[in-house]
Amino acid sequence: MDLDQTKIDKLNAGTSYIDHVPNEDIKDLLDDGKLVPTTEYVDLKACNSISICVPTPLNKNREPDLTYIQETAKNIASFIVKGQLIVLESTVHPGCTENELLSVLEKNSNMKAGIDFHLAFSPEREDPGNKSFALNDIPKIVGGLTKKCEEKATYIYSSIIKSVIPVSNCRTAEATKLTENIFRSVNIALVNELKVIYDKMDIDIWEVIDAAKTKPFGFMPFYPGPGLGGHCIPIDPFYLTWKAREYDMHTRFIELAGEINTSMPEYVLSNISDVLNNLKKSINGSKILILGVAYKANVDDHRESPTFPIMKRLKTMGAEVAYHDPHVPRIQKKRDFPEFEGLESSALSNEYDLFLILTAHDVFKELDYKQFNTPVIDTRNIATSILPDLYFKS
């Protein structure tokens, strides 16, 4: 169920609106009667289980915005059927399910969670574009409001997921999801900081990481980039930061990692300025083609992509900026960067003063850059078939 009629129309026509979900999968589910796209909340009455998967953004003060969860819960509450399971999958702070969500559901349904209906938290665990793991291969964490809620959620998820891992309560499941993404955020910040340091020492960070990961224990490779993107890692850690203040605690590691990761676009801009300056050009007046606006390789998702702050700063500094991304033919509505909505992918050509690689799409790895004779700044260490004098890492 989704309130976006355009998405529902596409699904009913057997068309996927997500790049890495094939149309064939949608058509098969429709034909089998396992997928019934709808915009009507009343249709939820026919379901044994309802999963809430809505955005959980931060506001401008990096505080959780639970509006989508609260509004969805309020609308769901009117149609809850006795014995139904309600599962929150959106990433939230510890305690959200058994406090904020439970309160809205009970208030608007006149039912009691754990008695009249079941309530659980089971975080989304997905890696879009990763072909090594299908959805049913990824273990599913489940935390229930009560033991019976946990058993109900475990039973339902076990019908589609190979391994379901119950934890003691909703708070533990919520904290598990945050811990996973905080781990990534902190380690990415570490290699981003090392990259800046090693650049000054004329040491290639990617060569260092490739060498270090030959150690069969005690090291896990993470890679630097132009900043963090996606709907998880740039946002989720600050849910814990916000909640920790309630306990007079300060999440220094998390906040420091956030500062380092959000500073990377400025580092890239500095390198752009240096490269153009060495070519006797300036950012002001230069034509720059950005390769990739998706937040990660081989997907069409451009939420929270570091591309957008870089594009905005380049335009502010007087550059003519375009982008090329075969996965994102047109930029969709952006909450923080509305000025880019509707911008369409441009063709590759030699009319640009600079190519800036920001996403590690496979197509950019395979591209023959020599045909353009254009300088390339590569923030992902992926370009091959390129003239050394025109290649710069960032």
Number of structurally distinct domains: 3
Structural class estimated from helices and strands:
alpha/beta
Q: SSE order in H/E notation?
A: HHEHEHEEHEHHHHEHEEHEE
Give a short account of the largest sheet.
Answer: 5 strands, mixed
Query: What general form does the structure show?
Result: globular
CATH first level of the largest domain: Alpha Beta
**Beta content:** 5-15%
CATH topology name of the largest domain, in short, is Rossmann fold
Average of the residue pLDDT scores: 95
State the CATH superfamily name of the largest domain.
NAD(P)-binding Rossmann-like Domain
Report on the structure:
By secondary structure, this protein is of the alpha/beta class. It folds into 3 domains: 40-168, Rossmann fold; 177-256, N-(1-d-carboxylethyl)-l-norvaline Dehydrogenase, domain 2 (Orthogonal Bundle); 264-393, NAD(P)-binding Rossmann-like Domain (Rossmann fold, 3-Layer(aba) Sandwich), CATH 3.40.50. Helices cover 36% and strands 10% of the residues. Helix 4 links the parallel strand 2 (85-88) and strand 3 (118-121). The longest helix has 31 residues, at 170-200. The two termini are 43 Å apart. 37% of the residues are buried.
